[in-house]
Fold this protein.
Amino acid sequence: MKFICNFLLLLNFLAYVLVDVVAWKYGAEAGLWFLLPLVLFPIITSLANKVAISQADKFFLSEWQVFVKKIKWGNSIVVAVMLVIYKVFLEQAS
């Protein structure tokens, strides 16, 4: 199970890499903006074990449910930070 979770975590990160590569085709500003998830996602998912996942979750939920909660939390925080940065900085520049 640990291998599957790590593999899916890697696929999630590679999806952010793919989005960044595609964003560079639309310009340097978009490419630089999509570098943010490449930095934030590993940090946030490592913090999820301390912040979002409680000891009760680890005890009562299955390993898969804990992993899904960690991924959902990590992706939602990354998307929220990107939306806030877009609304505050990039949308006003246009």
